[in-house]
Amino acid sequence: MLAGMGASVDVFQMARARWEKRQAKVLKKVRTRMVNQENSDTGRSWSDVWGSPPRDQNNEEEASERAKRAAAAARRW
User: Fold this and answer.
1) CB 26 within 8 A of CB 49
2) Terminal-residue alpha carbon distance, the chain
3) Which of 6, 32, 34, 49 has a 20 to 30 Å separation from 61 between CA atoms?
4) Mapped to the 3 state alphabet, what secondary structure does 12-58 carry?
5) pTM for the full model?
6) pLDDT tens digits for 11-57?
């Protein structure tokens, strides 16, 4: 697909860049929360630092169905 274009897509570099961007965003949120927590006496939960999981990931049946479809697609590929 990219033959003759002179450059290939480095998917690992792209994934690393996305991960680093996400980590930076979370660290910024944590720093802000720590500063705000020092200024107030109320305790906040730290469990939602990474954000809440999408609703469709909560259902185990849907997750197993997605896993089956992914495995079938991998076998075909």
Assistant:
1) yes
2) 16
3) 49
4) HHHHHHHHHHHHHHHHHHHHHHHHHHHHCCCCCCCCCCCCCCCHHHC
5) 0.42
6) 888 999 999 999 999 999 888 888 887 766 555 566 666 666 666 55
